[in-house]
Amino acid sequence: MSGALSGGTQPGPLIRPDETLPGIGGAVTAIPLTHPGNRRWWIAFAGAAALLGLFALTLGYLLYAGPGIWANNNAVVWALDIASYDWWIGVASGSLLVSAILLLLGAEWRGAVNRIAETLALLATAAAGLYPIIHLGRPWFFFWNLPYPNTYNLWPQFRSPLLWDAIDIVSFLVICVSLWFIGLLPDLATLRDRAHIEALRQVEAKAPTRKLALLRAQVYGILASGWRGSAAHWQIWVQAYRTVALLGVLLVVSVQTGASVMLAGSLMPGWHSTLLPVSFLVNAVYSGVGVTAVIVMLIRLVYGLDALVTDRHLDVLGRLLLCLGCASAYCYAAEYFDTFLNGDPEGRGVLVRRMTGAHALVSWTAILCLVLPAQILWSARARTAPLAIAAVGLLVAIGAYADHVMVLVVTLTQDFLPSSRLPYTTDIWGIATFAGSVGLFLTLLLLFLRYLPAVSIVESRRLALTVSPAAQEAARMAASRATGRPEENPVAAPLWGVAATFASQGDLAAALQAVSGISPDQVHLDGHGPVPMPRTLRPLGLEGRSILPYALAGALLGGFGFFAMCVYATAYDYVFLIGGRPRLSWPSFVVPSVSFAMMAGCVAIHLALLVLNRLPRLNHPAFNIPGFLRASEDRFFLSAEARGDRFDAGRIERRLAALPAEAGRPLEIQRIPR
């Protein structure tokens, strides 16, 4: 995918050639630590907070008057409320799918996009999750949808799509939180170390904000969970990140196709189409990429991150939007062609009402905004114009929302029975509810941009080490100054171990190979660095560790356990036949069981990541290594922890000092007290 999207004539490099590892960390962490553009942020936050206040007002009136304020009626029971839910979950699905696929395919340009995409997926899921609750009419009883032993010994109706939505939202939220936090964890360590340095500087200067700086460093330290950039940490982190991404892809496909199959399996004209699952998934990904493109362009413009979000990234985003725009156009064309050629009269009537009926403006907005704007991206100049990319992304988001309104409202206003045909007119409270949910989304997004890294530091550094001449030259210059001499005055205090500093991962791997023959009963070896270090796994004996058994066990136990609960509750313990369904309606149990399996697997992965890496651990002797804060910047460290009385620090020092300058000689060797 990366090659296909980025092939041909390129508009420029993926990262500026003069970027170094400390420069990348400084540029990204400066946003949450120094708050550039502070006045503009407060203006935007005030606008988002006003919309959030509108949301609170709307929900208050909704609780007082009921869902009838949305102007829904007996025919159009789903209108802007469910259209808004579908749109938000579509944005979340698209953003999550883009980030996950780029990660699984190893796209080298993902560093500028994946953090924003993961954040949008999380925040859009939070906004979407409120709609099924407030749609209930009595939202304070939302927990009745959850399978718990209530006082009436009743089970929820596992064959109901309402319960499917509850399980889907909870599963989606768990996976989005897990993927977002796992990707953010190493960057939080970089933020922690820079905040610590800034706090010490302010304390020494007796700055009036020194207490706030210390509090900020402590908060980031807690969030970083004691991440030390250990080779063992990185190995499990890479596996956990990719496995959760895979579970996210499966969940997106399950959620989008499950919702569309539910519509396609109904008797309503205009819904029972085999193309509906495909069009739902395409437009969901399309809207997610569109919103991601808008936010990425705004961050690039406001915070001046054009060195990390380059014209090459704009070009790739433009190509993505163009491909998805063509796919959306194909889905519309296939639907109209198939319906008018082979469809029934009622289905053709639905399409005619979409184009000429009372809601024709919504239908034409959907078609024109999803199909036409992306076509300007055939131009290479448009694909590298930030305003063009942002405009296309915004129009795509508008078109996707109009598409959901079109699919629901136009179909529900007229079915096979003339007696159930009721017109629908949009009410101000429905619009206010959606505007308020946008306010919630923007408020959380602005808080994220103010206090957390907006671009993945780790992925940008990995890219810099590969393609940036400045980063490579800095490592070579540091290695050329390596002396390999141990400290002149060894510490007299009880010894924790020996530490050595290196300029590159290759030097660290060579040094680990040189000392790896020492018995594990005498010493515990580890490596630390700012990026994943696959070359250190063999000398450390970590190649065989895998997180996949935990993921597989969690997913299988969760999925089969939930399916068994559905079967037991519906077919044996609480038999309640509805809608002519058989007693054992096992196909209707598959959708929530798949979602629950993905969630259970994700929880198992997250627990394994923490337990196998023995995190959180906020205090560790490795933090006592002089200069260890640079392990989250541009230095690689070897730590040899003493085990038993047979530990020989001098032997390790001699082996390290004897390494050639071009293959593993450390910059510095030190003994570390306990």
From TrEMBL:
| Region annotation Disordered: where it falls in the sequence | 1-20
Q: Does the keyword Transmembrane helix apply?
A: yes
Locations of Gly residues compositional bias?
1-10
User: What's the family?
Assistant: Belongs to the NrfD family.
Name by which UniProt lists this protein: Polysulfide reductase
Sorted UniProt keywords: Cell membrane, Membrane, Transmembrane, Transmembrane helix
Q: How does it sit in the membrane?
A: Multi-pass membrane protein
The question of whether Transmembrane helix is a record keyword is answered with yes
Tell me the organism: Methylobacterium oryzae
Membrane-spanning segments = 41-64, 87-107, 119-142, 162-185, 244-264, 284-305, 317-337, 357-378, 385-408, 428-452, 547-570, 590-612
